Structures are given as C-alpha cells and as structure tokens.
Amino acid sequence: MAKVLSISSQVIYGHVGNSATAFVMQRMGHDVLPLPTILLSNRPGYKALAGEPVAVDKLDALLRAAEENGWLSEIDGVLTGYIPTPEHAEFSRHWIAKIRAANPAALYLCDPVVGDLPRGLYVSEATAEAVRDVLVPVADAVTPNLFELGWLARRPIASPASAIAAALALARPTVVVTSAPSGKPDSVANILVKGGEVFATVSPRRALTAHGTGDALAAFLLSYKLNGFVASASLRAATAAIDAVIEKSEGRSELALIETQAVWAAADPVLAPLASLPGLDDDDDADAV
C-alpha cells in the first residue's frame, strides 16, 4: 500500500477532482490524503453551484499539521489536478519539494487541468501559465488532454505524430496524452511517451455528459504505477479501466465509478491492447507502439 497526497478540486456531489481520484486510489489499495484546492457543491453545469477556492494559508496549515504528525515523510506519490490560482501552484511546488526531500523516490504526477476542447482554457491564463511553468517542469509524469498538450507545448496538434512531438517537447520523463488523434474519426488514442519509447491504446469515441474522465485516468495511471506496473502495462490497464467507466456512464450526468469498481479494482485487471498509429515511421520515436 502506498500513501498519496492528492491536491485538486473537491465536490460534495459527483465524481470530479479529489471526489474521483481519492476513491479510485483508495479502492486500488492506497492511502490517500485528499487536499481540496477548491470546495464546490458540484461541478459547473448544474442549475445551482456554490463554493470557492480554499485559501493557500489554510492549505499550508493543514499540511504543516500533517508534517508534524509524521505523515508526509511516508508519502510515496503526489497527484495535482485542478489548480485555481498561481499561488496554489507555488504552494504545491513547495510541498512537493518538501516531500521529495523526505522521500526522494516519491513520484509526482501532474494532471494539468487547464482546459479542453471546444471551450479552451477554463482557468485564467495566469493560472495556466503557472501550471505550465511551475508544476510541469518538476513532474515525473504529465497527463494532458489534447487541448492541454497543445497549449503547454505551444503548438497545434492534428495527428498522432504531432502529439508525440509535442509530448517530447515537454521534456518530462513520462507524458500520457489523452483524447489524442488516432487517425480515425470514430476513435481516440491514449499515447504514452517515455524517453525513446511510445505506447498507444485506442478507444471508441463516445459522446459523454459526465465529467471527470481525466481525473480518474490520472488516478488509474498513478495507482497502477505504484502497484508495480511497467509503463506500457499501466497505460493498458488504465485505458481498460476508464473505458469500462465511460461505457457505463453514457447518458448519465456523473461517472459510473461506483458501479464499475469490481472491474477496475480487480487484483488481475483487464489490459487494453496496444495499438499502432498511422503516420509514424518505423525509424522514429514511435517505433515502440
């Protein structure tokens, strides 16, 4: 069992932010410290919405207490998701550094929750820049969606090859691009770029009302990694897990995380097949797909 600090949004109704990641990681056998950067009644899109960001000084006090109780020295992984202000990004980097000082082997996964298609950015540009310039450079793994990857890498993405090039431009040990081009209009790819290796899985493109798929996928990826899976197996297991959730969630307003837990939390999880992607030459960085 690993111990994970999850810094993200939290809702009292629904399955986004920590309200998705904490359950996923706990169900997969990990001890989770969920720290809410913003506390909301629910995700935007419902008739009513209440809540506000949690002040950085309050979050700092919470982690100082956890530190004094000896819990932070036991942290094996950190996940950051929704960051509401640049100050929250700096706060997160400060505590990630402290955790790594106590445990140099601690893994940090940055899910850069800054926007999506077709809306674009849904945080301020200053906050998105802080995620890009403060958090991404210190991450062991980054999990952007297609829009976020293009924004972070400052380049358009229209093909699997351009997605891989953009992932390499982030210069992080591992990048997993979600909702990436697969070369076919009826499917999307998850592409993992790790040094000179590239692995991809392909899933059907589905219309989905529920939100939180990126949060859940990041939690799946980190959980499988902490459970000892190699990179390609983590991608395959995480893809199978999120596909099972999405299939059950069609026509619903929230992800079916509860109903599908027997599938994705199984001791012997389903592994999605690796896929070849069009437009990638055998001699380029995608030859491991």
Automatic annotation (TrEMBL):
Enzyme class of the recorded protein, top EC level: transferase
PANTHER family per UniProt: PYRIDOXAL KINASE
Domain (Pyridoxamine kinase/Phosphomethylpyrimidine kinase): residue spans on this chain: 76-249
Pfam families: Phos_pyr_kin
Source organism: Rhodomicrobium udaipurense
MF terms (GO), sorted A to Z: ATP binding; pyridoxal kinase activity
Keyword ATP-binding carried by entry: yes
Coiled-coil residues: none
Protein name: pyridoxal kinase
GO CC field: cytosol
GO BP, sorted A to Z: pyridoxal 5'-phosphate salvage
E.C. no: 2.7.1.35
InterPro entries cross-referenced by the UniProt entry: PM/HMP-P_kinase-1, PyrdxlKinase, Ribokinase-like
Alphabetic keyword roster: ATP-binding, Kinase, Nucleotide-binding, Transferase
